[in-house]
Write a structure and sequence with these properties.
Number of helices: 15
Strand order of the largest sheet: 1-2-4-3-5-6-7-8
Helix content: 25-40%
Largest sheet: 8 strands, mixed
Number of domains: 2
CATH topology of the largest domain: Rossmann fold
CATH superfamily of the largest domain: Alpha/Beta hydrolase fold, catalytic domain
Structural class: alpha/beta
Strand content: 15-25%
CATH class of the largest domain: Alpha Beta
Length: about 500
């Protein structure tokens, strides 16, 4: 039976005899006429777990007045060590994000924050703890009885951070007839190689107790039960028809230690196996700022799929300065002085239209900087990389920065010793992945670009070698030229500033 500490006023009218399994109508507490959307620490008793499960709920502002209306539900899962109140705690402010998005047109939805304990939202391999069974067989039906939900898979979505990201993945992965959308944020999981080399205490305490293999090392940790849950082993053709019922979105920060390697390799696998999904790499680590900002895209995406919203999460176009290149195609800073160690920023490409290269330079251009630079267009379909360097030697004397588009990535890597900074925009490196400490790489692509494998492999190389890097993956549009500009904008602050 639900225990209401601080009842959502008027909502209790929907929680009467039979609605929550109650045997008779309950007396409602007196009200002062106010309506509180957020209620903490509600309780459902679980027979499966043999304990109470706390959860919190954030209701739509329209819930009281529109008494016959039913709503889609977003389940929001917390990370390891947190609880059902953490999404609206000291560091995460989901309710603020939700209100802001509602003010911009987001549909009204019910948000449910369940306690996940330390379960990774999974059943344990030995049957000793069945959290997933509780969630699917008891908790989801309970929410549907207690609130005016639309009780079908097409109107249920999952998101979560860290451990909750794994929960959002595995609950939808194993129950595609219950949820239609899943958005793991900084999903806590590992590659096989990472699991095999995890510290013994880390493995036993966090993973072995769930998947089996406590006390084991190496390949013995990769149990059959682990493979039954790990997305690497589940996104296969045999499961395609079921998994494609779910709309997948996942995101990770490029400052993560292990998790981006795992998330990025999952993206590569899904691309290789042609599973539709959305993927982002953003600036940041394992932090609330990444997860709060992710909601700005995740919740409109849920709205699009669950409520028929016509607008896909908005893509912010790149901003370009109103500046034109000189007759020779170059673009100079207002303080350009060729004799004062001007920095040359070389834009390498294979046959892109002059107008697109001009737009790319204008995206990087800042009229207010005191930086002494010159942007240099270099079409490798006309001259080799070294020939372009030689031809521009007379108009710049300082360091060189490379901006490489597409297949010029391999040429630039071959000549990397010539450049202080290398930036790749949706670039194919042709297998050139040798990086070293002290080198600087800034690279970006869209999540549907053909360069996904090269960019992901470059990230791993930088992590191994200690090279300095920034890595971004952005949403793709149907305008490739515009996508290139947005990729530049994501990393431009590191290139010349």
């Amino acid at each position: 039976m639900m225990k209401l500490n601080k009842l959502v006023l008027f909502v209790a009218a929907a929680i009467v005899a039979g609605a929550c399994g109650c045997t008779k109508p309950r007396e409602l507490p007196p009200t002062d006429g106010t309506f509180e959307r957020y209620t903490k620490d509600m309780v459902m008793h679980s027979d499966i777990l043999g304990t109470d499960v706390k959860f919190s709920v954030y209701l739509p502002a329209s819930y009281v007045k529109e008494k016959d209306r039913h709503y889609s539900v977003v389940y929001m899962l917390h990370g390891l060590g947190d609880n059902n109140n953490s999404w609206n705690g000291n560091y995460l402010h989901a309710n603020t994000r939700i209100q802001s998005l509602e003010n911009s047109g987001l549909s009204d939805m019910i948000y449910v924050f369940p306690s996940g304990f330390s379960s990774y939202y999974s059943n344990y391999y030995n049957g000793s703890y069945k959290y997933m069974d509780m969630f699917i067989k008891e908790f989801v039906p309970y929410v549907d009885k207690c609130f005016r939900t639309i009780p079908d898979a097409g109107h249920r979505a999952l998101t979560g951070y860290s451990m909750g990201g794994f929960g959002a993945m595995v609950l939808a992965e194993k129950n595609p007839d219950v949820f239609c959308c899943s958005a793991p944020l900084s999903m806590s999981f590992r590659t096989d190689a990472q699991y095999m080399t995890e510290s013994q205490s880390g493995w036993d305490g966090q993973w072995g107790k769930i998947f089996g293999g406590v006390g084991k090392a190496g390949e013995e940790r990769l149990t059959d039960y682990y493979k039954e849950h790990c997305p690497y082993y589940q996104f296969i053709d045999a499961n395609r028809s079921e998994l494609e019922k779910v709309k997948w979105f996942f995101i990770c920060g490029d400052d993560e230690e292990q998790l981006l390697i795992a998330n990025d390799s999952l993206h590569t696998l899904l691309r290789d196996r042609n599973f539709a999904h959305e993927y982002r790499v953003v600036n940041g680590g394992h932090s609330s700022s990444v997860w709060n900002d992710a909601l700005l895209e995740v919740l409109p995406l849920f709205d699009h799929y669950m409520n028929g919203a016509s607008q896909w999460p908005a893509i912010k176009e790149a901003s370009r300065q109103d500046v034109l290149p000189a007759e020779d195609g170059t673009m100079k800073s207002v303080n350009f002085n060729a004799q004062a160690d001007a920095v040359g920023v070389y834009f390498f490409h294979y046959g892109l239209p002059d107008a697109e290269i001009a737009d790319a330079m204008a995206t990087l251009y800042s009229p207010n900087t005191t930086f002494n630079f010159i942007y240099l267009p270099c079409d490798l379909s006309k001259k080799s990389l070294s020939e372009w360097e030689d031809s521009y030697a007379s108009i710049r004397q300082g360091k060189k920065i490379a901006v490489a588009f597409g297949k010029t990535g391999a040429d630039v890597m071959d000549a990397k010793a010539d450049f202080a900074i290398i930036s790749f925009i949706s670039a194919d490196l042709g297998g050139r992945l040798s990086t070293a400490e002290g080198e600087r790489y800034y690279f970006s692509c869209t999540d549907d670009d053909d360069s996904y494998a090269s960019m992901g492999a470059l990230y791993c190389s930088c992590k191994r070698s200690g090279a300095s890097f920034e890595y971004r993956v952005v949403d793709a549009s149907d305008n490739i030229a515009s996508d290139r500009l947005r990729c530049i904008e994501k990393i431009k602050q590191y290139i010349t500033y």
